Hints:
The chain is α/β, with parallel strands linked by helices. Helix content is 43%, strand content 14%. It has two domains: 31-129, 3-Layer(aba) Sandwich (Rossmann fold); 133-287, Aspartate/ornithine carbamoyltransferase (Rossmann fold, 3-Layer(aba) Sandwich). It is globular.
Amino acid sequence: MKPLNHLLTLKDLDKEQILHLLDQAAKIKAAPQDYANALRGKSVVMLFEKPSLRTRVSFDIGLNKMGGHAVYLDQQNGELGARETVKDFGANISCWADGIVARVFKQSTLEQLATGGSIPVINALSDLYHPCQALADFLALQEKLGDPSKVKLAYVGDGNNVTHSLMLLAAQIGAEMVVVCPPGYNVDGQVVVDCQAINARTGGKLTISSELSALNGVDAIYADTWVSMGDSTPLDQIKAVFSSYQINAELMANTGAKFFMHCQPAHREYEVTSEVLDGEQSLILPQAENRMWAQNSVMLELLK
C-alpha cells in the first residue's frame, strides 16, 4: 500500500488506502483501549479559520484517546497568511508539532501548509473538500450495509465541499453516487471530471441530475444545509429554489432509501423534516460519532 503523507483531498488516495482507513477506524472504534498509547507523545496543532462543533471536539478528544495532545488556534489569530505567509507558518509549526489539522477558507491554504512545512497536514474542511466527513459517512454506511463499494448513495441539495468528497470517495472505491441539485447549484465541474476519470478506472458510477426521480433505488439519501456557511443569499430566495428538494417521509418511501444522512448542523423543516431527522432511518449520530474514529484512523496512519 502506498504511504499516506497528507490528507488534503480524497482525489490523492486509492481504493486500498481508503478501505484500509475505514477498516482501521472500525478496529479503533471496537477496541479503543488497544490504541490508548498509539500516539503517545505526539502533538497536533489545530488551525481553525471557521467555527466548528463536531470537527473540533472529535479531533481533540479523539487524539486524547490515543495518548496525543492537541493545541487549538482559532480564527481570532486572523486568517492564515495575513500576519505571516502560510509557508512560514507551516515551517514554524513543523519545528514543534507532529501534525497539522486545518479548517480553512481556501484549499490553497492547505496546500501551502503542506509544502511549506515538513509534517502531515489534514484537511478538516476547505472551500472544495471535506474528506474526514466523507470517511466518517462511509464508515457509517459500511456498518449498516457491509462492503462500501457496493453502496448506492445519493446527495440532494446544494453541491458543495461535502458533496465533492463523497463523490471522490465513492469513485475511488468503485461505488455508485447520485447527485441531485437544483439548476444553478450544481457541483464543481472539475470535480465531476476528476470523478469520471477515476470511475473509468475503478468501475464506479456517477449520475448528476436535477430530477428527484434519479433517487429511485438508492440505499441512502444525504442532505446538507441549503446555503453554505457565510452565504448571504436571502432565505426567501433559497426556499423558492430548494423547497421541492426537501427530504421528507414521502420522498424516503417513494425512493426506497433505507437511510438518511446529514453532516450537521441541520435546519429542521428546511432541507429535512424533523420526522426524518429523528427517525429510525437517520444515521446522523453514528456519522457524528464516526468523525472521531475515522479521524483517529487518519492520524494514526499519518503520525504513527
